[in-house]
Amino acid sequence: MPDASKPASTIADYDRDSIHILPLSILPLGSAALGRARLIKNHRLETRVELFRETGGGSGQIAIDEVPDFFPGDGAALAGDMALLRKLGELPAYDPYTLRIGLRRAGVNVLDLGALQLSAAKRAELQPLMRGITRPLVTYLYGAGARFGQNMDAVMRTVESPASPMVRQRILAMAISLRVDPDALPDMLEDYGDTYLALSYYRGYLIYALPVVSRIIDWMREIRQDSFLRSDPNVQRSFQRIEGLLNLITTSVTRRFNDFDRQKVLNWDAVTLDSFRAVRAMVSEHQESLAQVLCGLTVKIYEWEQRFPSGGGSPEKRADFVNSDLKPGLEMLWQIERKAASLGVPHGSPDSREAA
User: Fold this and answer.
1) Are residues 253 and 331 in the same domain?
2) How far apart are the first and last CA of the chain?
3) How many domains does the chain have?
4) In terms of residue numbers, what domain contains 325?
5) Could you read off the pLDDT of 179-230 as tens digits, one per residue?
């Protein structure tokens, strides 16, 4: 789990890249002191203002409505801040993509636009997941035998400055198909690449979550099957339902990404404006639900890793964590995921029949 208590430069990247943290310093707040806090989604899926976070996981959290008790001052300025915090508190997650949409809807002029971009380190980390867009595009530009790596930024430089007449001709053909001026094509492709980067960002959280969820399930089974709690019917029912929800959520999100992989690859030789827009629309349609489900799953995983870094724990402590911290909100996440997944599977496919 990333450490949010590292030096300031690291904290900036951690916050910027996080799916569950909004540093209030990026907002045009009237209360300067409030800008030192963060808005977070905690492991119970509650929105809280985090006043501090200590090494070892200690976190001082308050509800948004409690802010005036901790930040007295200019009443008019604080009233404006409270209105903004309440709007942002309704967002499903705090990753850069969700924040761009939420802040735009709230009419907020963000102070630090860089805070709504992934850090350079995170972008580099996600490049291997971008192969689904870079490989087909490089193949179109240079041929099937091309070896160009996985860096979308490098591909974009090629589009801006073609390396040969053949590449220049193919870029011109693409611009004609997409009905844009060739000079505007790099911006259009960059926008498309950013959409794909968002999908890779969410996929990265799923890749991180899958093995940890498996460990949590094994950890739960240890006391469900091999402790005195095996004779407690309430524990058995509760643990079985929670294990089932974790499996349902992770399996469904995995299936959604597999479905994206089957549908979103563009044929650059025959790309049209409609096909280009359709891929972007498909990803945009699922952005909010992916953010909410993966944010909820992630904060629960982080809390478990913090509280039980080496696994273990007595049966009583494990049962208390499962029921008090892991369980809250899981049913809601599953309902969100089930509804979103049913929208993303083509009618009549095996996946759609299974989901039904």
Assistant:
1) yes
2) 36
3) 3
4) 184-355
5) 999 889 888 888 888 888 999 999 999 999 999 999 999 999 999 999 999 9
